[in-house]
Design goal:
Helix content is 39%, strand content 20%. It contains 14 helices and 13 strands. The strands form four sheets. Strands 6-7-8-11-13-12 form a six-stranded mixed beta sheet, sandwiched between helices. A hairpin with a 4-residue loop joins strand 7 and strand 8. The radius of gyration is 26 Å and the shape is elongated.
């Protein structure tokens, strides 16, 4: 079933492929650094998913105004021009070919400081995008975005929006590090706009075929655990590489073994517990040969390998737990089994629920104890 992005971002039940999603913006907020910018004493992101675009816009406006008061960052840009005096390096070929010296001129290659940097162009484009995101809900905020965008244009920030690869290549060092928060918010603006870019000719099911939504779900779960568990003594590790416990092997075997990388690892040394979490933005169950529903075998083998292959590597590895987390499709599951000393749980999260319920479900799925096995 294909649907407009507006269903998925305004609180109604939209679909990403076959998976019902109430609000992609909530996942985007947890997957980003937005939570670190919010005063939790005043605002709870779980209760206001529909306000996230407005909140991000307000924060971006404040950061841009802050940078403008202290002047935008400058960088050197290369130029080639015909001048009345030597500046930089002379372009001898063009100078001679056009006989410029006879006319008292010289062609030069030189560098000059300019505010028209990749970051500034990206931020200006983000302001324009924000104006469109909030225009229907807050016309005053949209007007402020357009005013700031116009002001940056007057300062010489012009041209097309940089590509994602250009932005990824940016390294903020020295005085440019002051642009880090502004750039982070601008990136989030374009992430927020990704669902709405699919309105019209395309359907949101196209988004699923892209790697974007799968990674979004993974990063959102990791961000939620980090935001809620670190203060309680937990370590939250993402994209952790695991090593095979090899006793001996032939010369070429090391290069042939497949790598193992977990999505999320939760560790609490005081409680002596480690939980390996793997997220799948797909259906939890599949249909077997004779029509019965079952867990996907490759998913079970994957989490089993993550746990068993690490036994003996440290104190937490011998009784570590595994959690396979899926979005729910029609039915909710939270089933646990004890397999060779390791609790392994397959569970779903209802992404059509309220923000608070989504948070509670994701946190509760990671609670393992002996009591959890009584009904297993």
């Amino acid at each position: 079933m294909a649907c407009s992005n507006l269903d998925a971002v305004k609180g109604e039940h939209g679909f990403v492929g076959k998976i019902p999603v109430r609000n992609l913006w909530l996942l985007l907020a947890y997957a980003s650094d937005l939570l670190r910018e919010i005063d939790s004493a005043k605002k709870s992101i779980d209760d206001m998913p529909d306000e996230i675009p407005t909140l991000v816009t307000e924060m971006l406006i404040k950061r841009v105004e802050h940078r403008l008061r202290r002047s935008l960052s400058l960088s050197y840009v290369k130029e080639h021009s015909i001048l009345n005096r030597v500046r930089g390096r002379i372009d001898s070929l063009q100078t001679e070919r056009n006989q410029l010296l006879i006319r008292g001129k010289v062609a030069c290659h030189f560098e000059r400081l300019d505010s028209n940097t990749i970051v500034n162009r990206y931020v200006r484009a983000a302001l324009s995008r924000c104006a469109g995101l909030v225009s229907s809900s807050d016309k005053v905020l949209a007007h402020r975005c357009r005013v700031l965008s116009g002001y940056m244009a007057n300062l010489g920030v012009v041209g097309d929006c940089p590509t994602r690869s250009e932005i990824q290549s940016v390294r903020l060092t020295g005085s440019h590090s002051q642009d880090a928060k502004m750039l982070s918010l601008a990136r989030l603006v374009f992430d927020l706009a990704i669902p709405s870019e699919l309105a019209g000719k395309n359907s949101i099911s196209d988004l699923e075929r892209n790697e974007y939504v799968r990674k979004l779900f993974e990063k959102a779960v990791g961000g939620l655990y980090r935001f809620n568990l670190v203060s309680q003594g937990w370590r939250v590790l993402t994209s952790k590489q695991l090593k095979w416990q090899i006793e001996s092997c032939s010369v070429g075997m090391h290069s042939l073994l497949p790598g193992m990388e977990t999505d999320i690892v939760l560790e609490n040394t005081a409680e002596q517990i480690r939980i390996v979490v793997d997220t799948k933005f797909a259906a939890m169950l599949t249909t077997g040969q004779f029509g019965q529903a079952s867990i996907k075998s490759n998913h079970l083998y994957q989490i089993y390998a993550y746990l068993r292959s690490q036994e003996g590597s440290d104190e937490l590895s011998n009784n570590s737990c595994g959690l396979m987390l899926y979005p729910s499709i029609g039915m909710e599951f939270c089933e646990t089994a004890l397999i060779q000393g390791h609790q392994i749980r397959f569970a779903t999260v209802d992404l059509t629920a309220s923000g608070m319920k989504i948070k509670h479900q994701i946190l509760e799925r990671a609670i393992f104890s002996s009591d959890a096995m009584k009904s297993a």
